[in-house]
Design brief:
With about 240 residues, the protein is α+β, with helices and mostly antiparallel strands. The protein has helices spanning about 5-40, 45-60, 75-80, 120, 165-195, 205-220, and strands at about 65-70, 95, 115, 135-140, 145-155. The chain is elongated and about 100 Å long. The model has no long low-confidence stretch (mean pLDDT about 85).
Length: about 240
């Protein structure tokens, strides 16, 4: 089978194009894997919030990434406050007692929803609404229950279209939901080991740990350490 020089050039150009596409797909796959590893490596809620809201925004080149968490009993908020974490540190993390009523799509969000930004419907999610043109709402589900949503916002009106495939975003939602549940459980475990179950006050284990830290700090700074002991009568 003989081919003309023009056909050979076309085949070579096609092969080069396919090689470039394969190399680009490999780079994208590697970047996605790095993002997933970063999410799974987060050992605390603050670390996870930073990865999701800041790192993903920078990595995907988005105007906004918002994490919405259902926290009806305020447990997650109490865990953060107990670790001296101020909620103001994470303005893109929204805690709600109920997801119902916040965004219309939340009532039946089974898979990622992609489409245009609509002010009346989505203004509670995105503060910089004048920059957002298209959005992606990624459900976070655990044990068949919607525990939150990861919302992407872009100024490009074609970035998130209803005609685009959502398999990748659905996979990301599974990863994030697992990471959130894992971080909350870890925070619960740490909290339970350092506090009294009934009163919520720090226990002796916490005192011993903090005392060692303060002693080490006093030695480094050549400062004085004062300890105040209070005896409460009839307190069990």
């Amino acid at each position: 089978l003989f081919r003309s020089e023009s056909e050979i050039r076309e085949l070579r150009a096609l092969i080069a194009e396919l090689k470039d596409e394969a190399a680009n797909n490999e780079r994208l796959l590697k970047r996605n894997q790095e993002r997933e590893f970063e999410i799974l490596r987060a050992e605390s809620l603050p670390q996870l919030f930073d990865v999701l809201c800041r790192r993903l925004r920078e990595s995907y080149g988005l105007e906004s990434v918002v994490l919405v968490l259902a926290d009806a009993e305020h447990e997650v908020r109490h865990l953060l406050l107990g670790d001296q974490v101020r909620l103001e540190q994470f303005p893109d993390v929204v805690f709600v007692d109920s997801l119902a009523g916040m965004v219309p799509q939340f009532t039946s969000l089974q898979k990622p929803w992609l489409g245009p930004y609509m002010g009346p419907d989505h203004q509670l999610l995105f503060r910089s609404q004048h920059e957002i043109r298209s959005i992606a709402l990624i459900p976070l589900r655990r044990h068949d229950k919607l525990i939150g949503c990861l919302a992407f916002g872009s100024r490009d009106e074609k970035r998130f279209s209803r005609h685009l495939a959502t398999d990748f975003l659905a996979h990301l939602g599974v990863m994030v939901a697992f990471a959130v549940e894992n971080a909350v459980n870890r925070a619960r475990l740490i909290r339970s080991g350092l506090t009294d179950f009934l009163t919520g006050w720090h226990n002796r284990r916490y005192l011993q740990s903090r005392l060692m830290e303060e002693l080490a700090k006093a030695r480094r700074q050549s400062s004085t350490l004062v300890c105040l002991l209070i005896d409460l009568d009839r307190f069990k």
